[in-house]
Design brief:
Strand content: 15-25%
Distance between the termini: 27 Å
Strand order of the largest sheet: 5-8-2-1-11-13-14-12
Bound molecules: adenosine-5'-diphosphate, magnesium ion
Order of helices and strands: EHEHEEHEEEHEEEHEEHHEHE
Shape: globular
Number of strands: 14
Radius of gyration: 18 Å
């Protein structure tokens, strides 16, 4: 069971698939026991909204990005790096797996800058430091990453954290670690066309066109962008239905369904 120096599979677990059933966690533990190296990145936007409501903080989105003031950032950090991350880590460890939860801030894994002043403390990735992931993987742990980033903006600024989209983090990590594959587990069958029919294979330019025409919208946009980003250094990116039991295991067995975005056509070597 040794793939410690081998290629890594980066899996993003979507908020909607989280907690719907435990087969994703079972699959993660099983794959680890089979010697696969996994990095898990999670979302949790819906739970963040629930906790913002509990705190009486109103929230709004601009093009799918949560406008993040200081009070919102505190809730985002607490819910993502706290509750959501620890529940996933606890679930993996209690099923006999070995996982360590970190956020993009830990070990300066994800380093970013404010993307757009209008959005507040929302980051764009400037640099990825994969060293903490390597240390964990080499020691046999699955890193479970909460999507936050260390802020590289103004050293005198008291706020050192940035809220960052989980899909973006997954794409950046996959690119930086030169992953074997990048897999998004989400709450739809894959990328669908204008009439809702699954598109099993897309080239980067076809994916770009779907964004430009608005067929790919909202939460699918950061996924497609993350796939395109990752394809600068990896070969295969996948967007699959995480609602199906054992979706991840089926995917690794080559029976995942969903959408593949790949760079090369014809001359695969
Ligand atoms: P996750 O929690 O997995 O990040 P999101 O809600 O952010 O989930 O993104 C998935 C959503 O993207 C789908 O539920 C769907 O509403 C939306 N979406 C937008 N365009 C498309 C498309 N062309 N094909 C499939 N889903 C799409
Ligand atoms: Mg999303």
């Amino acid at each position: 069971m040794d793939n410690k120096s081998g290629k890594v599979i980066v899996v993003k677990i979507g908020g909607a698939t989280l907690g719907s059933h435990d087969t994703i966690i079972e699959d993660i533990v099983y794959l680890q026991q089979q010697g696969k190296s996994l990095v898990i990145v999670h979302g949790g936007a819906k739970l963040v909204t629930e906790w913002l409501i509990k705190q009486g903080i109103s929230t709004r989105f601009i093009q799918g990005e949560r406008v993040t003031d200081e009070a919102t950032l505190k809730v985002v950090t607490s819910v993502l790096a706290g509750l959501v991350n620890k529940e996933i880590v606890a679930a993996i460890n209690s099923l006999g797996g070995q996982a360590v939860g970190i956020s993009g801030v830990d070990g300066a894994l994800i380093q970013g800058r404010i993307k757009d002043k209008e959005l507040g403390y929302v980051g764009t990735v400037v640099k990825v430091n994969i060293a903490p992931l390597k240390v964990l993987l080499q020691s046999g742990y699955i890193p479970v990453v909460a999507p936050l980033s260390l802020s590289l903006d103004k050293p005198d600024e008291p706020v050192r954290l940035l809220n960052i989209n989980g899909d973006t983090v997954a794409g950046e990590i996959a690119a930086a670690i030169v992953a074997e594959s990048l897999i998004f587990l989400t709450d739809v069958v894959g990328i669908c066309n204008h009439s809702g029919k699954l598109l099993p294979h897309l080239s980067p330019s076809e994916a770009e066109a779907l964004m430009a025409s608005g067929v790919v919208s909202e939460g699918m946009i950061p996924k497609v962008k993350a796939c395109l980003r990752a394809l600068s250094s990896i070969r295969t990116t996948r967007i699959i239905d995480g609602r199906k039991p054992h979706a991840l295991l089926r995917e690794i067995e080559g029976k995942g369904g969903g959408t593949t975005i790949i760079k090369k056509w014809g001359n695969e070597s």
